[in-house]
Amino acid sequence: MIIHEFGLDDDNSALVADRFADDALAILAKEVYGYREPWSDQALGEIATQLGENAFLVAEMDCAVAGVLSYRVNSYGTVAHVDALATRHDLQRGRGVGSTLMAELEETLVDRGVDLITLQAKDASGSEDFYIKQGFSWIGVGNIYEKPL
Predict the structure, then answer these.
(1) How much is the pTM?
(2) If one looks up domain 2-148 in CATH, what number appears?
(3) How distant, in Å, are the alpha carbons of 71, 103, 138 from that of 21?
(4) Most-buried pick from 22, 36, 108, 122 (CB within 10 A)?
């Protein structure tokens, strides 16, 4: 599995050139935001706008996008928040895509001096156990989890 990182341009209006950027946004559109295929460039643009200054990690398997993680770091550079983690719907769980993306994120953030990751899991999404296995702790409000680095 290969991990790519990309972000938005200075205007936050277009993704920096990456051969997987459109596919990554398409996975987010379907798996996280509930858009139905076929989606328009406008729908993908709306997601890119919502994610603003986020950075993206994209997992590649067999020359295709297998999963995507979207995150942002606060202005102090100390706390990162995971806005979305999604894998391609046709991949079986347990292939390590989500775990690999989370491990890459942690390595990237430690190198940048970030000392805490937060995220909010969807209610009844089944992701709660995954995040606990990744070392996150539930902090008791609205399915919010955190992990000190």
Answers:
(1) 0.75
(2) 3.40.630.30
(3) 15, 20, 31
(4) 108
